[in-house]
Design a protein that fits this description.
By secondary structure, the chain is mainly β. The chain has one helix and nine strands; from the N terminus they run E-E-E-E-E-E-H-E-E-E. Strands 1, 2, 4, 7 and 9 form a five-stranded antiparallel β-sheet that branches. It has a four-stranded antiparallel β-sheet with strand order 3-8-5-6, with no helix packed on it. A hairpin with a 7-residue loop joins strand 5 and strand 6. The longest helix has 4 residues. The chain is elongated and about 50 Å long. It comes from Paenibacillus helianthi. Keywords: Membrane, Transmembrane, Transmembrane helix.
């Protein structure tokens, strides 16, 4: 029978537009969420489900790549669990400049530990503004 080991939330901003345009400098990995899931005493394979969201205001013009990625660990160079990328040209594609980016992923059978740390990072190819919401959630299960 499946057993819930732990569930955590890292809530940075709940309401769209409430960050008032916090700057995101081009080509820098910025931590926007971090959780620690307790997996001590797990029997059988551990399964972790993660989801995250970040929203951006992008100034018109130019080709842009926004990336949202989760790692198992606390720094951007730790093992990659999953990533999602949005490539756009806001001046050519849409009259709106607000873009949400979502990440929904799983980590199957990570090594058991007292606590497994997961971190959510964002990166942009040009300077953009973070406007919210920003949230990162995770659940760990075993048999």
């Amino acid at each position: 029978m499946t057993r819930l080991l732990d569930a955590r939330t890292s809530q940075n901003v709940s309401i769209a537009g409430s960050m008032n345009g916090v700057g995101l400098t081009a080509n820098q990995n910025v931590l926007i969420g971090q959780i620690g899931l307790t997996t001590a005493g797990a029997e059988g394979p551990i399964r972790v489900q993660l989801n995250g969201v970040a929203s951006f205001f992008v100034f018109s013009g130019g080709f842009i790549t926004l990336t949202l990625f989760a790692v198992r660990g606390s720094i951007a160079t730790d093992p990659l669990v999953a990533s999602n990328r949005l490539q756009l040209n806001p001046g050519a594609t849409t009259p709106t400049n607000l873009f949400p980016l979502y990440l929904i992923c799983s980590d199957y059978n990570p090594a058991p530990a007292d606590e497994i740390i997961y971190s959510l990072f964002v990166n942009s190819s040009i300077n953009v503004n973070r406007v919210g919401p920003e949230s990162f959630n995770g659940c760990a299960y075993s048999d």
